[in-house]
Amino acid sequence: MSQVHIESPKHCAKKGLNVDKLYKKLFFAFSAFFTSILSLILIIWLILRPAKPEFSLKEADIYQLNLSGLNLLNSSIQLTLLSKNPNEKVGIYYDELQVYAAYKGQQITVGSTLPPFYQGHQDSNLLTASLIGTGLPVASSFGYEVGRDQTTGKLVLILKVNGSLRWKVGTWVSGRYRLNVNCVAVMGFGPSFPTGPLSSRQGTQCSTTV
Prior knowledge:
This protein is of the alpha+beta class. It is built from 2 helices and 13 strands, in the order αβββββββαββββββ.
């Protein structure tokens, strides 16, 4: 006669408890491993302390800045920026950089997209952009402001770069960080414009926030 073994609820409870212990051990082991990896990355990050990139304006030329129709602006600006990575052990990926010009708090060109690029340790790159505005609506006071600047012989233009960057340490690459760059171009503004371009070649340092 065959025997049938029937386990009591007590035995089943003991087996369930052993499975729970196994899952808990696996969970704690995975958590400890994950925490160790994060801690290592944080320690490396704190040791390296990546510095934000440096931007400077090398050259800016205004070829067109005039009103057509009712407060509609046409503009044409060429600029060159110098971008530098000051870090010795941290590389930088630049993503989705948009450049545009502003005057008296008004955007006077559409955004021009710069191609994404990687900047190695302590590397420098020259960035050029052609900024165009066709029929952009501006405030009714725009013509008066330009005329007043032409009388005083000086025009102040703000050149902006917005986008994101990622830090690279060894094979590790960080998430995206917001990048904002503001450059001030002070240009001599005489009565000869627009027969000749307005130019700024001061090599001024730009403010950068990450």
